[in-house]
Amino acid sequence: MAYDYDLIVIGAGSGGVRASRISAGHGARVAVIEESRPGGTCVIRGCVPKKLLMYGSAFSAEAEDAAGFGWQVSVDGHDWPALIDAKNRELDRLEGIYRSLLTNAGVDLVEGRGVITGPHEVAVGGRRLTAEQILVATGGWPQIPDVPGLAEHGITSNEALDLAVRPDRVLIYGGGYIAVEFASIFNGFGIDTHLVYRADMPLRGFDDDIRRESATALAGRGITLHPGCTLTGVVADGAGRRSVTLSDGTELVVDQVMAATGRRPNTSGLGLEAAGLAVGPRGEIPVDASSRSEVASIYAVGDVTDRVALTPVAIAEGHALADSLFGGRPRRVTHANIPSAVFTQPPIASVGLAEDEARSQYGEVTVFTSRFNAMKNTISGRSEKTFMKLIVETASDRVVGAHMLGPEAGEIMQGIGVAIIAGATKADFDATIGIHPTAAEEFVTMRTPRA
Can you tell me the distance from the alpha carbon of 242 to that of 244, in angstroms, rounded to the nearest whole number? Predict the structure, then answer.
């Protein structure tokens, strides 16, 4: 059978665009279908705009710290609409780059909602396009928990990036990385911020020491934490505010309530059942190590698979798939030892295993930790601590986990990630000369195991 394309990609986010461009570079005929804006979650409504807001929110703390160094700095308010306009201009620029990347690669961009109508067919805008292979790269979408009034009166991370008016008081429901990042952003702009989560500590899935240090740092920055709580109801008060009730009986009146309790794979209405493809319990597309679904002609990469919801992972999966299908170089992406960062203030970064995971996997491990005042804080007067942790498999001396909370954690952890991927031992870390004076040198100067 003659197909219109060799590959149709549904979703022009980071993973879909990378798969499209590389496939076209290998000579494949490729179309990408996108119902919104090229760039996807990361560029348009995720990590890029979120980090831009984070940069903006950090200046208040910088102004506070400057006084200790002799600067006479005053902060006379903040122009919230100007920030949102600047952010939007940057997103427009990036969207243009994504469009150019597709055009220059020879990929056809088809704008509209793609719906799968068969193993080799996708309908979009009254057209029916066929391809030998179909790739689903539609990402994830915020979920709103079933709390009375929350869906009607709350926002998600999508809307939080585009608020036309700066709120004075915000409640964020959730304890994951999106929740704590937005809590840091709002707090940095001087907004009275409340963080509500059902666990005893935020950031489930991270190393427990990092979770404890994070809670201390968030509270130290002025965020009000409500651990062990859930939302029981949200009511509009008629004056543009929301009255929120917590499970411990606390009642709060805020300007915005943000649901940040997780994201789900964005597969609703894609027509997967028409191709004979059943999704998993969270709506995810189950795939094998080669990103192939149970339908041989349909693949999926990125958040829609519910494997590892990180943009660089989606990009790597998309690239590997293109090489495998059209480049004559079959390969797979490993999901072990993926470095990641949480852009709170101060930021968090990790690579490898948490301590409990390492003990479960290896049995005996040796743990090194360091908690200290960052050099800048000794003069600024900020009491915030930097925390670092190395986890070593005792038998082999190999470093199997590294974790940090403190300034530039993400930048530092990228290099540590290379070492761990390469199989570096604690002796290798010890033999490395530190760069002085930096916080990063602490990773190569920790000598005494934790008791």
Answer: 6
